[in-house]
Amino acid sequence: PEVIPIIGEIEQVFWARPLSAGMLVAILVAIVLMSIYLYRRPWGLPGWLRASLIVVRVLVLALVVATLLEPTAVVTETHTQVRSLPVLLDVSESMSMQDQRKRSDDLVDAAAALDMVSLQQAADPDRAVMGLNAKQRQAITAASRLDLGTAILSQSGRPVFESLGESLDLSYHVFGQSPRLLSDEDHLTSEDLAGLKADEPGTSIATSLEAVANSGGIPPAGIILLSDGIGNATSQRSEAVLQDLGARGIPVYTVPLGLPNPDDVSIRNIVMQEVAFSGDRVPVRVHLQSEGYEQRTARLSVLLDDRRVSSRVVRLAGGLQFEDVDFRVDVYEKGATKIDVVIEPFDDEVSTANNRVTRSIRVVNEKVNVLYIEGNARWEFRYLRAILKRDPRINATFIASNVGPEVARNSPEHIECFPDKLEEAFKYDLVILGDVNASFFTDEEFSLLERLIRDRGASLLMLCGPMHSPGSYAGTPVESMLPVRFDSEAKWEKIAESVYPVLTPEGQSSLVMTLENEVDLNDRIWSRMAPMDQLPPLLSAKPAATVLAVLSDSTARNQSYPLVAWQRYGTGKCMSIASDRLWRLRYKTGDKYHWRVWSQCIQFMTLSRLMGEHKRIRLETDRAVYAVDGQCRLYAHVLDDNFEPINQPGFQVYVTNVADGQAKELVTLRQDKSQPGLYEGYFTPPKAGRYRLEANENDKRISSTTEFQVSDVRQELLDTGTRPDRLQHISNLTGGTMLNVRELGDLPDLIASDPATITVRSERPLWDNMLVVLLVVGLLGAEWILRRRYDLP
Hints:
Layout: E1 10-15, H1 21-38, H2 47-68, E2 71-81, E3 84-90, H3 104-113, H4 125-130, H5 134-142, H6 145-156, H7 158-165, E4 169-175, E5 179-183, H8 190-193, H9 205-213, E6 223-227, H10 235-247, E7 252-256, E8 264-271, E9 275-277, E10 281-291, E11 297-304, E12 307-315, E13 319-328, E14 335-343, E15 356-364, E16 368-374, H11 379-390, E17 394-400, H12 406-410, H13 422-425, E18 430-433, H14 443-454, E19 459-463, H15 477-481, E20 484-486, E21 493-494, E22 501-503, H16 505-508, H17 519-527, E23 534-535, E24 538-541, E25 546-551, E26 564-569, E27 572-577, H18 592-610, E28 617-621, E29 625-627, E30 632-638, E31 650-657, E32 665-671, E33 678-683, E34 689-695, E35 706-711, H19 724-734, H20 747-750, E36 756-765, H21 770-789
Parallel strand pairs: 3-4, 3-6, 6-7, 9-15, 16-17, 16-18, 18-19, 19-27, 29-35
Antiparallel strand pairs: 1-2, 2-36, 4-5, 8-10, 10-13, 11-12, 11-14, 14-15, 20-24, 21-23, 22-25, 25-26, 26-27, 28-30, 30-33, 31-32, 31-34, 32-33, 34-35
Helix pairs in contact: 1-2, 2-21, 9-10
C-alpha cells in the first residue's frame, strides 16, 4: 500500500463505489445513534469521557463505511524524461546500387560520407576533389549506397551522433518493409554493422517511421532517415502516416543516399497483344529510358521461350524514347509462352535488373472458321471477302442470299443456306451477318444460330446495311443477341460529311480499335472514315453492352450513338458495327488499317472460343505474369449440363510447373457466395517458370486450361534513381529538413534536445492504505484502554 499523497497533488476525491447522498446521511445518522445508544447509561462516568467514547466509536464506524465505499484520489504528477532520437538506415535492395559519380559535388558527398574528407573540407567541392587520390576515387566508385550509409553512422557522422547522444537517447534501426533494432547505444561499432546487407525485397518508409515513432512512451525529438527514397508502399497510407507524425510534432530529417539520375538503361514498359496465332508476326512497342549513354547504341532483342527470335540495334537519345520491334511466333503448341524483351546492358550501369521485361503471350494454333452471310454486293463486302480469303489463319465460308444456288454448287467456299445440322452449324467460330433479310432464315435456323452463340461460345457480328439490317430482325432471336436497340420502322439517318467516329475510353483501350499505339494518331486514322453517308436508326446500347465508338456530334444528340458496340450473350459475344464504310480507312494507306481493324475484330470475337473459354468449366487467373512468392489468384466458373451455375462448397484444380514437369499441386477453390458458380483460391509459386492451371481428371473434357508465367521480378532494382523529391516531401510534411552529407553538422542545431516534461494524471485508492489501518486500530485501541480503565463491559 502506498503512502497517502501530498494534499497539494490531489486534484479530486471521489467514491469508487458511490451511494446516494440520502443513503450516506442515513448511514451517518445510524452510526451516531448507535454510538449514543451504546453509551446511554452513565455508569458513573464523567460526561467528557462518555462523549469521547461516543466520538471514537463514530469515527471507527465511519472509517469502516468509508473504506467499503473505496475513496479514491485523482493525483497529478509532473516529471522530466530524456527524449529518444531513432536513426533509420535503409537496407532494401536498391541500396546495393553503385552510383557512377562524375560531378564534383557528387564525388565530394561520397568522399565526405566515407570519411575521406572532413565535413569542413567538403564545403569547397572543387578543392576537395583535387585532393582525392586514385585509390580513394576507386573506393568511391565501388561504394554502394549502403556503404555510404554505414560509413556515415560509424565514421564520418560519428561526432555528430555522439553530440546528439549527450542530451538524447539514440537508437539505430535498419528497415526495408519493417524496422529492426540494430543498437540502442549512443554510437555504432563495426561489430554492429558487420554482415549488414541490402537484401530487403521492398521498402515501406512511412510504415517504418510510424513503428519507431510509436515504440516509446513519449514522442521522439525527431527521426533521422538515411535512404535513397525509393519506396513501394501505397501513397495514400503513406500520406496519412506522415501527416500524423507532423501533427504529433515528430520531425523527420532525411539524408538522401545515391544519385537521382544514375547512368542506366531500362525498359519501362512494352505494349504487345496478349494472344497470337502460330506463325503471326507480333509488333512490340518498347518504352526505353536511358541516362548517361546518349548517342551510344545497344541491341534490343526479343526472346521467345529463352530463344532470340528478333533483334535490332537502337541508338539511345537520352530520356524516354519509343522503339518498335516485331517477332514471328514460331511456336505451334497451344498455350501460354514466355516473351522477354531485353536491352543489351552496359558494363557500368547502376542496375541490369531493369534491362529485361517479361510478358506472356497466349498462342493459338487452330484456324478460325468464319461464316459470312451477305445479301448486298457492297464495297465493304468486296474488301472484307478478299481479307478473309487471303488470311491463312481463317477458313472462310460464304452465303450469298441474293443469288441462286448455282454459286454454291460451283464454288467450294460457298454454301446455299445456314446449316440445318448441329455438327455443321456448331463448327463455326464467327458468323458475320451482312445486309441480309431476316426472311432468309427459318425458325429452326435462328434457333441453331442462337444456340451456337449462347451455348457453344461462338460470336455474331452484324455489319449493318441499308436494305435489311438490322430493321428486318425485329422480333427474332437476333434482336435479343445484338448489343443495341433499334427502331425497325424508322428510315436510315443521313449523316453530315464532317461527322466521324470517336473512340470511347473503352474503345481506346480495346485491341479492336487500336490501329496505332499513339492515341492522337489512332484518333486521326479513325476520323478518315468520314463521310459515312447514312446510319441505321439505333436508339441506344443495351445496359450490358460495351460501346467502343460513338459519333463526333454526340453533344448535339440526346444520347450517344453506339457506332460500334459489343456484349456477351451466354458464353459467346455479339457485336454491332453500324457503318459499312470501314473501307474508307484504305485512303492513301491501302489495306494496312482496313485489314488491321478486321483482323483484330475477328481475333477479339473468336479467341475466347479457340482458347476453350466457351466450355462449361472456365479456368482463369487474374494476371498473366506473377512474381516469385507472390499470390496467384485462381478462378473457376463452373456450369452444369444446362449451363446453369453449380453451387458446392469447393472445386479442386491442379497447378503444374510445365518447364520442369514437377508433380501436380492440388488447390481447392472456395465458393464465392456472392456469384453463383464462381470459385476462387490462391496459389503461391515456389519458383520462376511456366505454370498450367487445369481441372481434375473427371472434368478435363468439359474444362478449359490456362497458363501463366512466374518471373523473379526484383521491384527494388527497377527504379534506380534516388528520390530526393520524395525525401523532401517527407521532411516538409513532418516539419523536418532534408540535408546532404555535407550538412550533417547542422543536425544538433535543428533537433530540439530539451527533455520532455510529462504530466501524469492517475487515480490512487485512499482506502487501501496502512495509515487508515493504523488509524482504525489506534482508535479501537484507545477505546479499549478507556473501557478497561473504567471497568466498562
